[in-house]
Specification:
The chain contains 13 helices and 18 strands. It is of the alpha+beta class. The chain folds into two domains: 228 residues, 3-Layer(aba) Sandwich (Peroxisomal Thiolase, Chain A, domain 1); 153 residues, Peroxisomal Thiolase, Chain A, domain 1 (3-Layer(aba) Sandwich), CATH 3.40.47.10. The strands form four sheets. Strands 1, 4, 5, 6, 7, 8, 9, 12, 13 and 14 form a ten-stranded mixed β-sheet that branches. A three-stranded mixed β-sheet has the order 3-2-15. A hairpin with a 3-residue loop joins strand 13 and strand 14. Helix 1 crosses helix 2, helix 3 runs parallel beside helix 5 and helix 9 crosses helix 11. The chain is globular. The structure holds coenzyme A (COA). The site of coenzyme A has 22 residues, from helix 2 and helix 7.
């Protein structure tokens, strides 16, 4: 039996800010944002989208009635969750109409959470081959207005269906992981905004990558030439490029050209959405699979996951026959192309608008949001979602 990714869904809100406009407003050379950081557009979530709705919208496009019967485990990875106690997975479980004979949990380890969820899902399917596990990586990245990290904000979710004999990609062994207690990025429970030591975070991302990559090669016996592409967690696209460059000289010219070309494809969605934390690596994988026509069944894709704090992991997967038929290329193109550009002033207003925290009732203007699933109101400290 093989286990892996059977389906992938993606959702990002309908609003964005262009990085050239943000650069102008922040009095920065646009090249710093578009080349130095490598971001073009930053998705902005209206109040009617929260991590629950983003994830539910991402899953909505891939789940059918057969999946509803088979899913008995929902794992929601996030670092911008809405509740310290109740898992966001339960809301999504209800919104998707999944069967009650299911486990629902939320997991957290910064941007690494969805990788932990996928590995947990793999173990679950190994024990229960008929099961399918819905893994959700959903976040709204907020560093704050006028901060160094502002250009690396974003919002969105990726939904992955993990099962046996997957239609998109099988997941291989070994998977190599490492943990160190460091303070490169964190968000205390009292803070709406993340704290980050940006330069240290970049250094650690690379150090963890080199560590797990070396260990992976020694455990697997594989080398750079054995990979059609390597996808990275992309807090901003330049970060992944920097990591790739540290190992490129392990391959000959043809290998280097292949990996560089495929990296270009794998960063396109992230460049136009921004950092979506837990979903970022899987958005990059989706970008590669949907935009690169030269990949074929049997190709091996490497995946580097990093979550500040910090945990790093390197693992790989093999593309399956006809994987392309199970993607939603046109839907994603239409979603990204139909978004509305915000002025920087409009983005700042949305950024500053927050939901009440004192239990008062608020009805949100859901007509402005084209998403199928929205946050409609808040009353008595309870969120009311609407699926339409
Ligand atoms: N044209 C092209 N490139 C330019 C430029 C211009 N006009 N001006 C600057 N640059 C380049 C710099 O040379 C630098 O490139 P390099 O990293 O290859 O050396 C890059 O743009 C960034 O410039 P820098 O001065 O380092 O930016 P910064 O001090 O504003 O910090 C981050 C950048 C990434 C550290 C900051 O945005 C941040 O903290 N982001 C969040 C970090 C994060 O996501 N961490 C999580 C990791 S998982």
């Amino acid at each position: 039996m093989t286990i892996g990714i059977d389906k992938i869904g993606f959702y990002t809100p309908h609003l964005y800010v262009d990085m050239n406009d943000l650069a102008e407003a922040r009095d920065v050379d646009p090249g710093k944002f578009t080349i130095g950081i490598g971001q073009e557009k930053m998705a902005v979530a209206p109040l009617t989208q929260d991590p629950v709705t983003l994830a539910a919208n991402a899953a909505w496009e891939i789940i059918d009635d057969q999946d509803r019967d088979a899913i008995d485990f929902v794992i929601f990875a996030t670092e911008s969750g809405i509740d310290h106690s109740k898992s966001a997975a339960i809301y999504v479980h209800q919104l998707l109409g999944l069967k009650s004979g299911a486990r629902c949990i939320e997991v957290k380890q910064a941007c690494y959470g969805a990788t932990a969820a996928i590995q947990m899902a793999k173990g679950h399917v190994a024990l229960h081959p008929e099961s399918k596990v819905l893994v959700l990586g959903s976040d709204i990245a907020r560093y704050g207005l006028n901060t160094g990290g502002e250009v690396t904000q974003g919002a969105g979710a990726v939904a992955l269906l993990i099962g046996q004999d997957p239609r998109i990609m099988t997941l291989e062994e070994p998977s190599v992981y490492a943990t160190e207690d460091i303070m490169d990025f964190w968000r205390p429970v009292y803070s709406e905004m993340a704290f980050v030591d940006g330069k240290f975070s970049n250094e650690q991302y690379l150090a963890f990558f080199n560590r797990v990559w070396e260990q992976y090669k020694s455990e697997s016996g594989l080398a750079l030439k054995d990979f059609a592409a390597i996808c990275f967690h992309l807090p901003y696209t330049k970060m992944g490029l920097k990591a790739l460059r540290t190992i490129l000289d392990e391959g000959d010219e043809a290998v280097q050209e292949r990996l560089k070309a495929n990296f270009q494809m794998s960063q396109h969605y992230n460049r136009n959405v921004g950092n979506i934390y837990t979903g970022s690596l899987y958005l990059s994988l989706l970008s590669l699979l949907e935009l690169q026509d030269e990949l074929k069944a049997g190709d091996r894709i490497g995946l580097y996951s990093y979550g500040s704090g910090a945990v790093g992991e390197f693992f790989s997967g093999i593309l399956q026959p006809d994987y392309k038929q199970h993607l939603h290329v046109q839907d994603h193109k239409a979603m990204l192309n139909s978004r509305e550009a915000l002025t920087v002033a409009e983005y700042e207003d949305i950024f500053k608008s927050t939901l009440p925290t004192d239990g008062t009732t608020v009805e949100l203007d859901v007509e402005q949001d084209p998403a199928p699933i929205v946050l409609a109101s808040l009353a008595d400290h309870k969120r009311q979602y609407l699926s339409r």
